[in-house]
């Protein structure tokens, strides 16, 4: 199985990621960076993005499947409504992912939500994490959190992050009262 890299934006220090099934914030530069990170693939290849059914449903219809990436949606109940295409595959079992990742796929990202992030964090398919660490004085309502303990992980340098992501990212962003930066974590 290829390694899978979670990409997630979380409010520090409590690692809050969602509210009522949606993102608690709308940060346009963060959306652009997310797209650039998850789309950047080797020549003649594309990346795959894996998500849970609830995260899939939180994406507005006009934006999905997320373009230029193979979208893999996990749901335990596959029905006739779930039609697979070249860009979208529904799977009812995480262990079937390797069967749909062929040589045309470069990187594999996990893009949510909390159930998958929290479950897979403990598995050895994850050895790197791209975390957007947000800080704000705004009052933000959050009901969904990562239960990650990153103490055994190493926060790599910004240069390591840029090399890993293969795109340009600024050391810090400021948008709508939020300050945020991207961090690459890897297992010790
Ligand atoms: N801040 C961020 O970067 C970020 C990113 C993504 C999402 N989010 C937020 O996270 C929240 C959604 O997270 P969530 O935990 O509620 O839902 P989720 O993880 O997106 O989806 C959960 C669903 O995925 C399916 N699933 C999970 N594990 C599975 C497995 N091993 N095999 C087969 N199917 C599996 C099940 O679907 P069925 O019920 O259909 O069986 C389950 O109900 C939202 O608020 C969203 O905005 C935040």
Automatic annotation (TrEMBL):
<dbReference type="InterPro" id="IPR017925">
    <property type="entry name" value="DHFR_CS"/>
</dbReference>
<protein>
    <recommendedName>
        <fullName>Dihydrofolate reductase</fullName>
        <ecNumber>1.5.1.3</ecNumber>
    </recommendedName>
</protein>
<dbReference type="GO" id="GO:0046452">
    <property type="term" value="P:dihydrofolate metabolic process"/>
</dbReference>
<dbReference type="InterPro" id="IPR012259">
    <property type="entry name" value="DHFR"/>
</dbReference>
<dbReference type="Pfam" id="PF00186">
    <property type="entry name" value="DHFR_1"/>
</dbReference>
<dbReference type="GO" id="GO:0006730">
    <property type="term" value="P:one-carbon metabolic process"/>
</dbReference>
<dbReference type="GO" id="GO:0046654">
    <property type="term" value="P:tetrahydrofolate biosynthetic process"/>
</dbReference>
<dbReference type="GO" id="GO:0004146">
    <property type="term" value="F:dihydrofolate reductase activity"/>
</dbReference>
<dbReference type="GO" id="GO:0050661">
    <property type="term" value="F:NADP binding"/>
</dbReference>
<dbReference type="InterPro" id="IPR001796">
    <property type="entry name" value="DHFR_dom"/>
</dbReference>
<keyword id="KW-0560">Oxidoreductase</keyword>
<comment type="similarity">
    <text>Belongs to the dihydrofolate reductase family.</text>
</comment>
<dbReference type="InterPro" id="IPR024072">
    <property type="entry name" value="DHFR-like_dom_sf"/>
</dbReference>
<dbReference type="GO" id="GO:0005739">
    <property type="term" value="C:mitochondrion"/>
</dbReference>
<dbReference type="GO" id="GO:0046655">
    <property type="term" value="P:folic acid metabolic process"/>
</dbReference>
<keyword id="KW-0554">One-carbon metabolism</keyword>
<keyword id="KW-0521">NADP</keyword>
<comment type="pathway">
    <text>Cofactor biosynthesis; tetrahydrofolate biosynthesis; 5,6,7,8-tetrahydrofolate from 7,8-dihydrofolate: step 1/1.</text>
</comment>
<feature type="domain" description="DHFR">
    <location>
        <begin position="3"/>
        <end position="187"/>
    </location>
</feature>
């Amino acid at each position: 199985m290829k390694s899978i890299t979670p990409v997630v934006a979380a409010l520090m220090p409590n690692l809050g990621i969602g509210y009522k099934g949606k993102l608690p914030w709308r940060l346009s530069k963060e959306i652009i960076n997310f797209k650039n990170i998850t789309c950047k693939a080797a020549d003649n290849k594309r990346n795959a993005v894996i998500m849970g059914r609830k995260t899939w449903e939180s994406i507005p219809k006009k934006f999905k499947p997320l373009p230029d990436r193979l979208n893999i949606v996990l749901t335990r109940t596959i029905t006739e409504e779930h039609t697979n295409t070249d860009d979208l595959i529904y799977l009812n079992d995480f262990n079937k992912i390797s069967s749909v990742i062929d040589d045309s796929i470069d990187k594999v990202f996990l893009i949510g939500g909390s159930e998958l992030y929290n479950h897979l964090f403990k598995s050895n398919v994850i050895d790197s994490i791209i975390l957007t660490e947000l800080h704000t004085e705004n009052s933000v309502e959050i009901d969904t959190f990562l239960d990650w303990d990153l103490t055994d992980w190493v926060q790599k340098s910004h240069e390591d992050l840029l090399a890993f992501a293969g795109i340009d990212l600024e050391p810090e962003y400021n948008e709508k009262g939020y300050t945020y930066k991207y961090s690459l974590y890897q297992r010790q």
